[in-house]
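Tutorial, part two.
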Amino acid sequence: MKPTNKKIGLLEAMSIGIGGMVGGGIFAVLGLAVSLSKGATPLAFLLAGLLALITSYSYIKLSLAYPDRGGTVKFINQGFGKTLFSGALNNLLWVSYIIMLSLYASAFGSYAPNLHSFGDQALDFHLYASGVVVLAAAINYFSIQLVGRIESYAVVIKLLILIAFVGVGLYGLFGNPNLQQLSVSQWESPLKILTGGMVIFLAYEGFELIANAVPDLKNPKKLVPRAYLLSVLFVLVLYMVIAAVTVASLPFEQIAKAQDYVLAEAAKPQLGTIGFTIITVAALISTFSAINASLYGGSRVSYEIAEDDELPHQLTFKLWNQPIGLFITTVATLVLSNFLKLESISTAGSVGFLVVFAMVNWVGYKKATAISGNKTLPLLGTLLCLIALGVMLQQEYGSNQEGVFVALSVIGVCVVMEWIYKKN
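Running the prediction step on this input gives:
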């Protein structure tokens, strides 16, 4: 997409951050969060949100000091130069985009059969998960302008439906026997709650997309801090309330049974089949728009990395009318979404973004003087990301070895891929 001379304001910048976070994440990982944290699910979302909020400080300072449409890629290169380490990190960012896309596709494949089933659960999932990725890729090839138009409408629709769900859900909590599921006695252990928060951390990563739009902001010095902080805070509160309403609306057994489409199931007690259908439609709109926008974003990340000579320059070439990275991202998404379980996808994606955000925080710490920032928050962000990463891997290894293996393999492949390229 060609840069535009039209400057954007606070609401547009916030919509980029909110739209990036409230994509398909909440629909995909809510059931998983409840299975890990039980009654403490709102607290798990709070922990993940606080980590995103701390990290946003580094993004604010780096965005103001190094405004660039490359966003995170440029920040990493500013901090570590164009080295094997920075190249591997940027590759990890691209692969994490692909994993995130797989998560959205999996959510679409889980929700869509509730509207129309072909008769076989596994077939339904594969058809819908694959079909939506192919459709979104076709739209990206057909018209980038259409991608932006779909996302702008989808942000409004999904927020209105989610806010309505929260309003109706809160009203219906009075006298609901499942309300006691939020009590401390129903919480999992602190380590499991933290693990739950970090496994669903992927639901917050979209705030980093604001960095790519900073060159187009009207008054960056004034608007950049507000855009990051307000969008993360808004989503944090929204997620916590949605989690609380869901846990208080359904018995844990029912939540486990409908884990892949739990938000739609949670609308049933108050709104019946109509509510179930409305939330299902919202999930389909959200996940489709997120896939649409993330395919575009992922292909641009690969383009930026190749342009910085950290991947083969051939990735800046075009296939049809788009960077070849769009085709590679699409194929990789199809493979992951069809062959990995949801929890493994979520674990691998969260590991990727925790590593990337830990290093962005470290850049904020290293460059504190140059970017007129303090060192405490970026250092705290680095340590918290790494601690959370360690706890999550240790806890997940006991119950989800596949997810841990995939996550570590992804990191290893990114390092090897960059080493081979740099060597040659």
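The mean pLDDT is 88. In part three we will examine how such features are distributed along the chain.
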